[in-house]
Amino acid sequence: MGATATRNEGVEATGAPTGGRDNVVRHLGADDRTSTRVRLVDGALRCLARQGIAKTTVDDIARAAGLSRATAYRTFPRGKEGILAAVVETEVARLFSSLAVAMGEAGDLEDVLVAGMVESARWLRWHEPLGYLLEHEPEVVLPYVTFGGFDQVMRVASDLAAPFFARWLEPEQASRAAEWAVRIVLAYCSDPSPYADLTNPADTRALVRTFVLPGILALRVDAATTATSSRTKSKSNTKSKTRFINKAPHSDKASDSTRAPGSTRPSSKGAAQ
Questions:
Q1: Binning pLDDT at 50, 70 and 90, where does residue 244 land?
Q2: N or C: which end of the chain has fewer CB within 10 A?
Q3: Residue 248 or 79, more confident
Q4: What are the extents of the domains in the chain?
């Protein structure tokens, strides 16, 4: 069944990871192997890894799942279209579950970057159905990684990753850091570099430590500098207002300018009398 089957077999009944790079936890029933829905999804993944989307039929999927054609249509009334939509939904859920485990165990900002990037790169690199489609039917995948489709992918992936970065960064900084990490993974996986293999933790850590982490930490420095500048400016404005008030004319002088012509101001002695 390829990469997906390997991930499923690495999950115990409790849903806890048993170790190894391809293990995942349960995500809203996404890996319930007794589920008719998931059996059809996994059957579809086997077909896609072998022959792609164009040549795959509902009969092929049902046969690969060990189910009847009628059962496939009862589960997915929209037929092949519905099954393929469920494949995308289930695989995204599996990826996110795997990332949540890997990133949740990180002890610092560098670790969470390395864990998330390695897990994502391995999933993209070793996902057999995705690999087949990229090689033989790229027109199916490319809309999701270009233009408007890419923006949607970035939003979803960044929203997932940001809470893990928020343990060390402010919310806005966490969102930007998550977006950078996602962009780096997609760039290196779509155009592999001979100098850094993101499926290799050592390579990824060197890349993060040298280039990625300094840029992210600079966000905190910029934020701190901006906050200090704002406080200084606020104090300066307060002092300016205070000086202006202290230099303002006394109220008695102001009253002299409004006294009727020819009138005289009583002396303090006359006022006392």
A1: low
A2: C
A3: 79
A4: 1-87, 106-229
Residue 146 has pLDDT above 90, yes or no: no
Q: Are 191 and 125 contacting, i.e. CB atoms less than 8 angstroms apart?
A: no
CA 7 to chain centre: 22
Q: Evaluate if residue 148 carries a pLDDT over 80.
A: no
Q: Is 111 helix (H, G, I), strand (E, B) or coil?
A: helix
Tell me how far apart the alpha carbons of residues 148 and 185 are, in angstroms, rounded to a whole number. 18
Q: If you search the block for the tokens 């293999």, which residue do you land on?
A: 197
Residue 2: closest CA among 50, 40, 38, 66: 50
User: Do 145 and 153 touch, CB atoms closer than 8 A?
Assistant: yes
Average of per-residue pLDDT across 146-164: 87
CATH dotted code for 1-87: 1.10.10.60
* Residue at token pair 């092929």: 60
- Determine the pLDDT at residue 6: 38
What is the three-class DSSP state of 221? helix
| One-letter amino acid for residue 93 of the chain | A
CB 134 within 8 A of CB 141: yes
Residue-wise burial string across 122-155, b where 16 or more C-beta atoms lie within 10 A, e elsewhere:
bbbbbbbbbbbbbeeeeebeeeeeeeeeeeebbe
d(CA 87, CA 79): 12
CA distance 190 to 124: 9
CA 114 – CA 105 distance, rounded (Å): 11
Range with lowest mean pLDDT among 111-125, 134-148, 181-195, 257-271: 257-271
Identify the residue whose tokens are 């993101």. 198
